[in-house]
Structure formats: structure tokens, C-alpha cells
Amino acid sequence: MIYLTNDEYKYEGVVNLPLLETLYKDIILDLDLFDAIVVTSKNSVRALEQSTHKWKNIPIYSIATPTTTYLNNLNANVVFTGVSGHGNDYAYELIPLLKNKKILYLRASSVVSNLESILKENNIDLVSYIAYETKCKIIDNFDIKSNSTIIFTSPSTIECFLKNFTWDESNRAICIGKTTAKYIPKGWKYQISPQTSIKECIKLAKI
Where are the domains of the chain? Predict the structure, then answer.
């Protein structure tokens, strides 16, 4: 059995195991003050959607293709998509592109990458703003079968999984990226998806 710790998409042969609750913040800022917006997830975009419609004309720098696809469906002004899909690597990709610009970075209340500090250390004029926070859900009456594969889409999903379940050594973990993999507990069998994409995670899980 394949379990996906996310309920955003439904895939045939995959059981959704939603472990996170996302709370969006109002973005109380004058967006006209910024030359560009940096986003590292679709949740940041959703916070923008709920707060204002002015953002769609502002150039947006997106961390990876899934987020860019979501933005394009909203007719947003995406000017760059990260190649690596990983927070720290993405920061270094951005440095030469953001020189002499005033940037708004929309992020979660808790982050695991050093994107903000990397950009600031390289003299990028950056304002960091908490756009959303995630909390663990309590899952009742749900059993995970032995010899299953669990797909983790963020470090938070690993944390929330451990608050609800005990790891079975017969199971395998698949991490959406290198950052998530760093939070896998010692002794777990795991693999890292070749791309930061849920679809790629599922392809790997089916092998």
C-alpha cells in the first residue's frame, strides 16, 4: 500500500493520509513597495489569493515546477522557476537575479531552509513575511498496513506522522526532497525522489 501524507491531490492506488492543517495569514503589506515576490510553496500563493488581488502583476520567483504550474493557472507573472527545487540551492539560484531589487519573501511560520539568511548575507534587499503556519492533525482509527510505502512531502509531515503512528520496520519512506530526508529518523528505510514532485514520488513508490 502507498500512503501520501497530503490530501491536495488524489491518485489511483494511493491512500491519502492528511497530517497537516494549514492556517493562512492576512498579508497586510503595501505590495507596491516590492519589485518581486519569492515563494517556496503553493501555500504562500494561497495566502496571497485570500488577501489581495494586486499581486498578480508583480514578478514572482517560484521554487519549482509544481508551484509554477499553480501560479500559471492563476495567470500570475512568473519570471523564474528554480531548477533544484531545494530551499538553499534555490537561494543561490536567486542571488544574481535579485540584485538591486526590493523583494518580498512569503514563508511559513517554521522553515527548515536557510534561504532568508543566504539572500540577506548576499546583500539582497529582502522583507520576510509569515504567510501561513501548519499544525499537526490528530488521526484517529487509522491503521497503516505493514510492507507499505509512505510518501513524506515535508519535514512537518514526518513530525506529525510520529505524533500519530509508530514506525513499522517493514515499511519504506519516500521523501520529496533532500531537506525532508534530513528529518528521517535513524534506522528508517528511505529513498529521495529524483525531482521535488509528488508525481515523481509516486512513480518511485511503485517501483
Answer: 2-19+137-205, 22-134
Is the pLDDT at 49 greater than 90? The verdict is yes
pTM score:
0.80
- pLDDT tens-place string over residues 146-160: 999 999 998 999 999
Which of 2.40.40.10, 3.40.50.10090, 3.30.565.10, 3.40.50.970 would CATH assign to domain 22-134?
3.40.50.10090
Pick 79 or 198 by higher pLDDT: 79
The residues, any chain, with a CB within 8 Å of residue 21's CB and separated by 6 or more, are: 134, 135, 136, 137
Sheet with 20-24, strands from edge to edge, namely: 20-24, 125-136, 102-108, 36-39, 60-62, 78-81
Domain 2-19+137-205, CATH number (from 2.40.37.10, 3.40.50.1970, 3.40.50.720, 3.40.50.10090): 3.40.50.10090
